[in-house]
Amino acid sequence: MRGTYRRRLLGPQNRHLWFWIFVGPFVLGLTLFTYVPLAWSAYLSFFDAHNTVSPTDFVGLDNYTAMLGDDAFTDSLVTFLVFTALIVPATYVLSLGLALMVNRLRWAQAFFRSVFFLPVACSYVVAALIWKISIFNGVRFGLANTVLDWFGADQIAWLSTTEPPWYWLVIVTVRLWLQAGFYMVLFLAGLQRISPRLYEAAAVDGARPGWQVFRHITFPQLRATSVAVVLLLVINAFQAFDEFYNLLSDARGYPPYARPPLVYLYYTALGQGQNLGLGSAGAVILALIIAVVTVVQARWFGLGRKED
Amino acid sequence: MRDALVGVGRAVRLVLLIALALLFLIPFYLLVRNGLSSEADITSPGWTFFPSELHWSNVREVFDDPNVPMAHALLNSSLIAVLTTVGTLLPASLAGYGLARIPYAYADVVFYWILGALMVPAAVTFVPSFVLVSTLGWVSTLRGLVVPTLFSAVAAFIFRQYFLGFPRELEDAARVDGLGYWRTYWRVVVPNSRPVFAAVGTIVFIGAWNSFLWPLVIGQDRDAWTVQVALSTFTTAQTVNIHELFVAAAVSILPLLVVFLVLQRYIVAGVERTGIDD
């Protein structure tokens, strides 16, 4: 009797049950640790919540108006824009260039691919340490200033010079080094999917190998990969925190410049005062901006549309 | 004439590649160079590419220094990375399989619920997640560092895409043998899907080992510091010896380099397989 009951309940014909046995734990965890915090954040953003997670003072949209009227917050958005304008094209060009060069190698391809991919294993903290102390040190024992010295140029205080803003060179190169290899692999995958027949046809039509073939065959064929790469680059740029925090903050705190949104939120919500209501409002604004940017970009590039 | 031009082009490309490869390797070299130098060599105004002598004792010094809780931080990072990897693979792979293979009227709704979370950047939710974790009393605990990071929409998505392409014939054979969903999954599907588990696993492991913002927010007590938090704390402090800092940093990337070199082809395959470029 029991056996039949058990079989009726747990048999493969009871698909609803099995679906939820497989998918349920994940959906539950995802809901608890992604959607609940999001909802909670939205709720907190309407309250005055200093140092507390169970606030009582409803303040309506005050946190939002405070955040949007705060120069430090709007400056952080400008910082993000500058960062994106520098890092996205730089990474795109370098990773595509690396992929093109590595792809056509007849020997040592695995070696070069590994060398360029190796930094992916390195953390932003470690890379920032090397960049800050060993390469772009403001005093003479840094590599960059030593090289400048060979050419008779003056030393530069890389991370504390704001006119001109030399710190951007440090911030951009560190991320470029860390992520170019990852996007190179995406481009390599894209390149391998291009049919050799297209190249043969191009050769028959008299296209010169090199720039012409790249412009008329390779680049258009990589369109889907390019769209995904740019999308990922922008989303990742929005989440920049590690390198900014580690390159620029020191025992005296964080300098007033080059605070991207997450760094600003970190200090608002978890620094002195722990203004969680204000921090939550900032997080909601940021999430909305990212959502809009993602959707607009996806629409713009026609992501998800079927290729014809 | 044309062959000569092609030959020149090839040579230029090779020189460029070698130069770029050297540039990419220099930071690794600097890490080791500074780690094995004396403090005087690192801070000497007459910077040289090679240190005047190698100090292998620096490695011992780091682990003996009471100001640098390196051994403890390494232990924390290892525990977190291993637990996160195992804890991510299990629920995400089950969910991916369920979504790909068990017919259910509302499967699409559930899938969009997961896709929606994919759009939410994890880093933006650190404020509310911190609120949640501190409400649970998990700040500075292993649970607080691991559990909230386990439910990765990306991992579930990759598994779903992979299982959609899994050959049905194998499962049909199991079905004929009278196996239900559960046993089919464990006895047939999992053993035949090792590459995707290895790929997702290494990506998750690297992410967990290198993650910084979440451990910084949650691991507030010194005892809960991960390697990354410990290193960052020393970079911004002024009391630590620079050579020790570099040894610690070099030690911190060793486990990943090993994982990386052993499983490299899976990582690359995994990156290619995410399907994001289709």
Structural features, described:
The complex is a heterodimer of chains A (308) and B (278). Chain A has 308 residues and is mainly α. Helix content of chain A is 69%, strand content 1%. Chain A has helices at 2-10, 15-44, 62-68, 71-103, 109-117, 124-135, 143-150, 167-192, 196-204, 211-221, 223-238, 242-248, 261-270, 276-301, and strands at residues 47-48, 57-58. Chain A has a two-stranded antiparallel sheet. The radius of gyration of chain A is 25 Å and the shape is globular. The relative contact order of chain A is 0.13. Chain B has helices at 2-35, 39-43, 57-64, 70-101, 107-119, 126-135, 142-146, 153-164, 168-176, 181-189, 194-210, 213-218, 227-236, 242-273. Chain B is globular and about 75 Å long. Chain B starts with a helix and ends in a 5-residue tail after the last helix. At the A-B interface, helix 2, helix 4, helix 5, helix 6 and helix 8 of A face helix 1, helix 4, helix 5, helix 6 and helix 10 of B. Chain B: It is found in: Cell membrane. Chain B: It comes from Streptomyces luomodiensis. Chain B: Belongs to the binding-protein-dependent transport system permease family. Chain B: InterPro entries: MetI-like (IPR000515), MetI-like_sf (IPR035906). Chain B: Keywords: Cell membrane, Membrane, Transmembrane, Transmembrane helix, Transport.
